[in-house]
Structures are given as structure tokens and as C-alpha cells.
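Journal club side-thread
Mid-discussion, someone asked how the predicted structure for our own chain would compare to the paper's figures. Pasting it here so we can look after the session.
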Amino acid sequence: QLQLVESGGGLVQPGGSLRLSCAASGFTLEHYAVGWFRQAPGKEREGVSCIRNSGERTNYADSVKGRFTISRDNAKNTVYLQMDSLQPDETGIYYCAALFYYCSGYVTKYHNWGQGNQVTVSS
């Protein structure tokens, strides 16, 4: 019954923007760090960004720094990922996942995962 649901993906032109949402149900995100991950076709899942439970600390993969912004609204039980200047090689399935309090760079440390949301960057 503990679920994370991603939304906001779709088809976007190169250089365009999308905002992904990660909404929790069955539990509160207040005490969880939330990470965003993506999996491109034929590649392993990789970390994109993470936000600590307090919101005071955020992490970004080097490839997205300056273009992506992670944020959270605990009142809405939702974490967001604003993605600007998207490139075709960033096409893939984007997942959010939760971990108690602190961010981790290791995929296996996260407890709860959403089902993923497709992002396609193409002209």
C-alpha cells in the first residue's frame, strides 16, 4: 500500500523542458530523502538527483547540474524534478525512490520505488 507515482513525462523537443512529479500515497515523505533515477534503453539505472528530508541538501549528477532542479512540498507529499534544456540522450524511464532521511548514491539503498515515467526527447 506504500506507493510512489511519477507523472509529468512525455515527448519533448531537444532543448525543451518538463517537470516530473513524485507523489506518495499510504505514507508520508516528511522523513524521507527522495531520489530521481533514469534508465536509458540498454543501460543501467543511474542517479539523477536527490533531496534530503529537510530539503536543505540536494545532489545532482554532473551531467544535469545547472539544468535540473529538485524540490519538495511536504504539504502535498510530493517531490518535483524540473528538467530544462533536455537532450536526446536523456531519453529514458525516470523513477523516484525514497530512503530514510539521507540521500545515497547507491540504487540498492532506496526502500520504495515508483513504477517509472517515460521521458522522450526527440525532434
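Post-session note: The CA atoms of residues 47 and 106 lie 8 Å apart.
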